[in-house]
Amino acid sequence: MNIDFPTLLVILTLVSGMIALIDWIFFAPARQKKEEEVPLIADYARSFFPIFLLVLLIRSFIIQPFRVPSGSMEPTILPRDFVAVNQFAYGLRLPVLNKKILSIGEPKRGDIVVFRYPGDPHVDYIKRVIGLPGDHLIYQNKQLTINGKLIPQTYLKDGMDLESTSGFGNIPSTVFQEDLNGIKYLILQHTTGNQELSKVD
């Protein structure tokens, strides 16, 4: 079972914060007069709320760790590697809702990005950006052309490609022609076999 950790963290933060706030406003004054002990649930809420809040703020707006599950980005990123993602590189987004509230920049060609797979928003993908809005891309016979310019590649043995001089890495063994006229980015993984290209907003 996949656990949606961001949603769980938001719920824990809200619940612990509400319990601590309600206790502080309605019950703590009377309890202090009677010199009674703090109930266990209120004590836990007071203790854990600042921790949950701090973790939520760091993961949502500063940096978030990801573990790479596959070798689709080899040799740049290996399976089971941990990567730290800059959460404000392209702007600030609300946790869980994933709604951008502040735009700082836009993805650039060659950037490695973590995004939610369009076919299943619960799955995080880590890939490299090759297509930007307005680009015209053609990939045929293991040759990638972007806006009429051929992108050079350096190939390794065993079906793996080294980082190209353009910074794109390996290109999948498919044929496509794509015009990115909308606000979309074309995302690419590195290694050959089971290749997939994704368009994301």
General description of the model:
This protein has 201 residues and is of the alpha+beta class. It has two domains: 5-61; 65-200, Umud Fragment, subunit A (Ribbon). Helices cover 26% and strands 29% of the residues. A hairpin with a 6-residue loop joins β3 (91-93) and β4 (100-103). α1 (5-34) runs antiparallel to α2 (40-61).
Q: What ranges have pLDDT less than 50 throughout 5 or more consecutive residues?
A: 156-176, 190-196
Specify the CATH class of the largest domain. Mainly Beta
Work out the helix count.
2
Helical content, roughly? 25-40%
Approximate shape: elongated
Q: What's the total number of strands?
A: 14
Number of domains: 2
Report the CATH architecture of the largest domain: Ribbon
Radius of gyration based on Cα positions: 23 Å
Average of pLDDT: 77
Question: What percent of residues are in strands?
Answer: 25-35%
Output the strand order for the largest sheet: 5-6-13-14
**Largest sheet report:** 4 strands, antiparallel
What oligomeric state do the depicted chains represent? Answer: single chain
CATH topology of the largest domain: Umud Fragment, subunit A
